[in-house]
UniProtKB/TrEMBL annotation:
Chief site of localization: cytoplasm
Family membership: Belongs to the class-I aminoacyl-tRNA synthetase family.
CDD domains: GlnRS_core
Chain ranges for the short sequence motif 'HIGH' region as given in the UniProt record: 31-41
Catalytic activity: tRNA(Gln) + L-glutamine + ATP = L-glutaminyl-tRNA(Gln) + AMP + diphosphate
EC numbers on record: 6.1.1.18
Protein's name according to its UniProt entry: Glutamine--tRNA ligase
Top-rank EC class of the record's enzyme: ligase
Molecular function in Gene Ontology: ATP binding; glutamine-tRNA ligase activity
Keywords of this entry: Aminoacyl-tRNA synthetase, ATP-binding, Cytoplasm, Ligase, Nucleotide-binding, Protein biosynthesis
Any one annotated GO CC term: cytosol
Species name: Aneurinibacillus danicus
Amino acid sequence: NKPSSSNFIKSIVIDDLKSGKVKEVVTRFPPEPNGYLHIGHAKSICLNFELADEFGGKTNLRFDDTNPLKEDTEYVQSIKEDVEWLGFEWDGLFFASDYFEEMYNRAVLLIKKGKAYVDDLSPEQIREMRGTLTEPGKESPYRSRSVEENLDLFERMRKGEFKDGEKVLRAKIDMGSPNINMRDPVLYRIAHVTHHNTGNKWCIYPMYDFAHPLEDAIEGVTHSICTLEFEDHRPLYDWVIRECEMENTPHQYEFARLNLTNTVMSKRKLKQLVDEKFVDGWDDPRMPTISGLRRRGFTPESIRAFCREIGVARSNSLVDAKMLDHFIREDLKLKAPRTMGVLRPLKVVITNYPEGQVEMLDAEINPENPEMGMRQIPFSREIYIEQDDFMEDPPSKYHRLYPGNEVRLKHAYFIKCNDVIKDENGNVIELHCTYDPETKSGTGFTGRKVKGTIHWVEATNAVPAEFRLYEPLILDEEGAEEEGKTFLDYVNPNSLEIVQGFVEPNMKGAKPHDKFQFFRHGYFNVDPKHTTEEKLVFNLIVSLKSSFKL
Ligand code: ATP
Ligand code: MG
Ligand code: MG
């Protein structure tokens, strides 16, 4: 692993180690198991794990499972799989719900210190009385309850004596604070729901702002890294650590979240795309989820290189999704075997080639990486070419096949188009060509030149294959949402095109997740879900062309 590039959090870590403020760096990646991880999470994962790795520290994977309404063990499973797949090993595997008893005790401590109270106001009333940026909040009439009464009520909240929403526990801080987060934030709420981990043991659940600092402190996290929207919560984070008298003092640092063009990146929205069947699951290759990217054919190396390149900053920005494409091309360039596939086949009969004869031609597996060796591909009287590579009536700059024109078949011979066969509707269904045996690839033929080289697959041995071609799932930047529209109005109706074609016979044994560069088409991944013994299905990872520059 290359060292991570320098960033402001890394500088803080270096200073803290030097000054002896911390002896060992401990970070954590704290997903809420309410959905699958996406590329934005990958940024946070890389940051946390690489930071600790570099300084011999530790990183925990902690499930921030304090909101049972939305959480599920399916998500826990997928998150573990995705973090491992990205190539990281966690030190501790923890669940915030394992700390519920400890958190409860810390809340009791706050009550005893006169720093928390049970409030009977409804959630709406609490919200209203919190005030605004320009207007101070109003104190709840229950704010002055005695410690004894608060202790009794809080215990009865835990016992299940009250309904959802009937009572909450609030911190007693300052309703006049300029920071709204400090205006007596809610610490606990009642929710009579089954929790994926603790079952029905609890019916009160801690809020994020109370739970998160405690989780960090309990685990001895030193640098608690989160996204910028939590900057205003930092005073509350520090308040909780201090007033709960935690032994360890973690510190929160904020960085800019990743935003990508043509991409929605919130689990809520991604879940909506899944639930409303815009895509076929969280791992649909069009999704920006780690599992979607994996199925599409992205590699952990390409995602980590991307995260390293985008870096860690303190201001929000929008990254071009083409940058991610750039990194998978770079990663596969030397790794992926080259091969030929015809996506939309047109039959070509080579009329002067002996009937029944099949010859084997030599082809490099990867001209950019000669160590990968050679492959053999059959050639005979009948081949398939791409429908696009023929035009009956071409424009002047068209250098592919047209009546009377000669092109090179990659790895094979020059062929010349003589006849065009059509069906009763006038559609071209077959071409009759002749080949020139003198022009065989590799023989050094220089007699004459052709302007076009096209790919092909020998017909009798061709392996049928399905190709799934993708366009961005979201048409416009999500930020371009106009009045009355939601991101669902920007879902691209043409994000998936499925075509049936052919690949070289040596592709027969291809396994799920094998990756290839199809000559002139781009990089493809063998789809792990749809591929069967009988049928190969390829996902387009990325095309070859790019205008993107780093
Ligand atoms: P979402 O809004 O997509 O549901 P979240 O922040 O609610 O994301 P969590 O499961 O709470 O998701 O996040 C786990 C960690 O990942 C947090 O530390 C969070 O800051 C980080 N994270 C989430 N989204 C991004 C992003 N787009 N860029 C960078 N980090 C992110
Ligand atoms: Mg969340
Ligand atoms: Mg969120």
